[in-house]
Amino acid sequence: GDSVTQMEGPVTLSEEAFLTINCTYTATGYPSLFWYVQYPGEGLQLLLKATKADDKGSNKGFEATYRKETTSFHLEKGSVQVSDSAVYFCASTNAGKSTFGDGTTLTVKP
Amino acid sequence: GAVVSQHPSRVICKSGTSVKIECRSLDFQATTMFWYRQFPKQSLMLMATSNEGSKATYEQGVEKDKFLINHASLTLSTLTVTSAHPEDSSFYICSARLPATDTQYFGPGTRLTVL
Question: Parallel, antiparallel, or unpaired for β A104-109 and B4-7?
């Protein structure tokens, strides 16, 4: 079956540092790829998405590019803020079914 | 983005009782909704896919008689945990799929504690 592997956490950064959270997937066919963010005690919020190869999703300074050749969808942000502290989930959706990575906890310190 | 609500956000019940959780898509009609369970510091585990007007599709290992799902309208799906036990205590999250897309919008979750 499909699977999503993302960078293990926790990740701790200082404010304004550069962020990368790696995500790779295995899937038959051509899945859509997503990044979700979860704040403590809350559900998941859609952060960004890409539906085909070479698409770049972006939102709130976060970016991720759908790389078919490396089956990756790494999340990046040039300058993180304390308010970005959360758990980030990478996910793929294929034939209507979603597969989630294990989540990466990000803590940004002032 | 689209809004999905869940009610209640938190519920505490006694062992042996049943608990109903509602999931509503507030600004779009969803023929498909999903129910997930999340354990502390872990990822989401898909429990079942809820299809409006038909029976839910349960994932392997999920007891359909224990976790009753009803998708009675295009904006409402309910999950009933029957005869709850302490091991059912968890964070339950629903999502609704935007029609004709792969995009799911998630509810804020329901924390269930069974005493």
Answer: unpaired
Tell me if B102 and A103 make a contact (CB, 8 A cut-off). no
Whether A16 and chain B come into contact, CB under 8 Å, resolves to no
Place of tokens 């942000």: A77
CB atoms < 10 A from the CB of A45, how many?
A: 16
Q: What does the pLDDT profile of chain A (110 residues) look like in tens digits?
A: 889 999 888 999 999 999 999 999 999 888 999 999 999 888 889 999 999 999 999 999 999 999 999 999 999 999 999 999 999 999 999 888 889 999 999 999 99
CA distance B29 to chain A (A): 16
Q: Which long-range contacts (CB under 8 A, 24 or more apart) does B84-90 make?
A: B84/B13, B84/B15, B84/B16, B84/B17, B84/B18, B84/B19, B84/B112, B84/B114, B85/B15, B85/B16, B85/B114, B86/B15, B86/B114, B86/B115, B87/B114, B88/B112, B88/B114, B89/B113, B89/B114, B90/B37, B90/B38, B90/B39
